[in-house]
Fold this protein.
Amino acid sequence: MKITIKLTSVFLLFILVSACSSDDGTVMQEDFVVAFENPSMSFGATEAEKDINLVFSTAATESGSIDISFTGTNAVYGDTEDFVTVPAAVNGVVTVEVASGAENASFVFKKLKDAVEGTEKSISFEISSVNLMGGMSNGTTATQVAFEETAALGGNLAPEVGGPNQPNQVYVDLSAQNQTSINREAWDLAFYNGDEFRVAINGSLYMAVAELDETNIDAVTAEQVADLQSSVAVGTFDAANTVYVDMPNGDINGTAIQEISATDTENKVYLVNMGSEIGTTEPEAGSVSTSGDSRGWMKIRVLRNDTDYTLQYAGLDDTKHKEISISKDAGFNFQFVSLVSEGVVSVEPEKEKWDLNFTVFTNEIEGFGSYGYSDFVTTNTMGNVSAYMINTETISYGDFTISDIDEATFDADQRAIGSNWRNGGGPGTLPSLKEDVFFVVKDGNGNIYKLKFTALVNESGVRGYPSFEYALLQ
């Protein structure tokens, strides 16, 4: 699992340009504008240091420095006190050196002592001077660092989906302002940790399953299921094929695998279409290539063992199966299993520590059955996250405040954002960013954010590089 924080510089509100008249032969000179990448950050219980990032409007044309002053609330600077910085502060100022050609800069904040329970402890940093030709600060000129976990005021995130093959599922925690990335092929089955005994399949690989009229997994052969295989797939344009995939709204009671019974004889064998490998071809700019070769077929059967699951699995023609025991963990939505690596794998963060998942997704087209979507965003409805969309014809993103929230509109369908943030494209037309919508997201702790997507592609027009800005409503 890879955990990263990657933010874009949307808070750099504008670049001021100064120039003399073009007929005097003078070259236009861009001002060098500096801002903090985000207006706030906070420390988790086990974190001891963080990078505080500065973003530039343009690459530095010369060497220089940026002076940053700070004030503390119940916090004192010093090696034996509450915090220090790298580089070290001198007389209450942190000086960050800027090399010629640099496009950004940062300094390190080291937390030495935790906050006393019930006491606010924070540091406010402010850009006090930019010591380069044409240097100035604008946009997010101050940032606040909290010593304990608090909801981020907002910021900008660029989930690392991985380009037009979109190899990664990216879990985003808005209040903690971070993202967790996992390769889509890392898992196949998800075993529910709640009260029910349910098993989900990996829709990001376009997996599908069919229940067989058999309880002995070793008795099932490839020949017996050959006629069924063409139907057990995603994208067949058959409305009836939705029975072979999980209900796309995220309802745990809508898994294609029926609830696991405490009575063994009621648990049937399932034919498993393992879906598609992650694509490797490089498509034209603006297109995607998310699917590669077939991952083949397997057979599985799931049983209950008190409060645990027992997974039986084998190749279609194998006459002897293998087993994996899976124990529930209430701190997570699911326990994940890879049939390829043949074991339990770590995938999702804890259920209270993510809000959005950027992923390839198996959705449904009414009348045509299951269908694969790229650039899809689901909400963590099992973690009590909900969302709804607003059209800017009603109110602009900038004007939307906490008083405009409509609690009754929050949608518990995990597709509340879905693909609604982009235009789907069509014959001769590539998908594009929708600039006339934004979203309101409520996390599991009741924090409410407004969220607007700012990119679908990168600077070269290549898909798989989404970004968004968001702000806490308070």
Residues 222-225 form the longest helix (4 residues). Residues 1-28 have pLDDT under 50 and may be disordered. The longest strand covers residues 369-379. The CA atoms of residues 208 and 391 lie 35 Å apart.
